[in-house]
């Protein structure tokens, strides 16, 4: 079964839903947002889609059929709003889309909606927590591994845990592993270290990347990135997604 939902025909979806195995729909969640001078605007979409792609074979091994939905590429992203290319939408609009997608999936008989998110803007994470609770209240199982929680953050890299984690080593490695042709290598090699912690700046009330100490819309260490680290991180992201789905489905 090809897991790309958008490439399936409706009889293929019908057959999967009648196939006797629970069917999970994985929704990759990203943003259209400035990611340093070296990474593409859809960096988070690339990362969330990669997380989903790494998770599918593991779910299949666990007896769970999985489709990857078309990604949601718009999200609250006000911290980056001053940079050309960022398109920020309101949390209420984003949540309404998620809830309508969930209603549609539930009506068709999907067993679970898995939220594969890599856009950690606090407004987005808060919205997703609320959406997950409201989707569950609709009666659809929802798997949402929240990597901003300490338990899951600890499965990721040291830079991620430091909070200097926007278009730095962590995200740059993930794009290098999946879509190296979209990395501006000259810009990456000239992007000096920026150890400023976004999470600490958020806690102190910073409202923009500039206020948080990221005048080029990146935090961390892009020059340290590697495709090898990216592959390891995809495996960790996917492991958390798979664990969340299996916990919801009890298998
Ligand atoms: Zn990002």
Fold topology:
Elements: H1 10-17, E1 23-29, H2 43-61, E2 65-68, H3 91-108, E3 112-117, H4 122-138, E4 141-143, H5 150-153, H6 158-162, H7 169-178, H8 185-190, H9 198-203, H10 227-249
Parallel strand pairs: 1-2, 1-3, 3-4
Helix pairs in contact: 2-7, 2-10, 3-4, 7-10
Bound molecules: zinc ion (ZN).
Summarize the structure.
By secondary structure, the chain is an alpha/beta fold. The chain is built from 10 helices and 4 strands. β1, α2 and β2 form a beta-alpha-beta unit.
Radius of gyration over all CA atoms, rounded: 18 Å
Going by CATH, the homologous superfamily would be Creatininase
Named CATH architecture? 3-Layer(aba) Sandwich
What number of domains? Answer: 1
Q: Distance between termini?
A: 20 Å
**Amount of helix:** 40-55%
Could you please say which CATH topology applies here?
Rossmann fold
Instruction: Quote the beta fraction.
Output: 5-15%
The main sheet orders its strands as 2-1-3-4
Distinct small-molecule ligands in the complex: zinc ion
Please identify the structural class as seen in this structure.
alpha/beta
Q: Write the element-wise H/E pattern from the N-terminal end onward.
A: HEHEHEHEHHHHHH
